């Protein structure tokens, strides 16, 4: 079985040819960094920087920064929130501190 690794400098998956990180690569990375989610975010941010540099060098137009952020880091945030919820760090129905402040000033 081929690993879902990036083919640089084009940043597609060696196994499935989808944009990297593909779904299976994200699962592999999440498992690899299970105890260290902050390091997953740091490493993915470094890879985002590398991918933007590579793709800018290869194409006339730079890649869409928002799309690249979602591709490399957006899923990491969702993963961290999901893990925190599953670990009971968030109470169901709780509000963020900002929303709690906003609703208290409305009264």
Pick out the low-confidence regions: 92-101
Cα-based radius of gyration, to the nearest Å = 18 Å
The shape, in one word, is globular
Number of helices: 4
Order of helices and strands: EEHHHH
Mean pLDDT: 85
Report the sheet with the most strands, covering strand number, pairing sense and barrel closure: 2 strands, antiparallel
Give the DSSP E fraction (strand runs of 2 or more residues): under 5%
Question: Which quaternary structure do these chains form?
Answer: single chain
Report on the structure:
This protein is mainly alpha-helical and 107 residues long. The protein has 4 helices and 2 strands. It has helices at residues 23-32, 37-58, 65-86, 97-106; strands at residues 6-7, 12-13. A two-stranded antiparallel ribbon has the order 1-2. A hairpin with a 4-residue loop joins strand 1 and strand 2 (12-13). Helix 2 packs antiparallel against helix 3 (65-86). It is globular, with a radius of gyration of 18 Å.
């Amino acid at each position: 079985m081929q690993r879902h690794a990036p083919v640089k400098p084009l940043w597609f998956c060696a196994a499935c040819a989808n944009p990297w990180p593909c779904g299976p690569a994200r699962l592999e990375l999440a498992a690899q960094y299970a105890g260290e989610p902050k390091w997953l975010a740091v490493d993915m941010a470094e890879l985002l920087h590398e991918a933007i540099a590579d793709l800018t060098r290869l194409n006339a137009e730079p890649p869409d920064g928002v799309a690249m952020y979602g591709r490399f880091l957006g899923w990491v945030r969702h993963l961290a929130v999901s893990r925190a919820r599953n670990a009971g760090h968030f109470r169901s129905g709780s509000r963020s501190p900002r929303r709690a402040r906003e609703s208290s000033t409305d009264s």
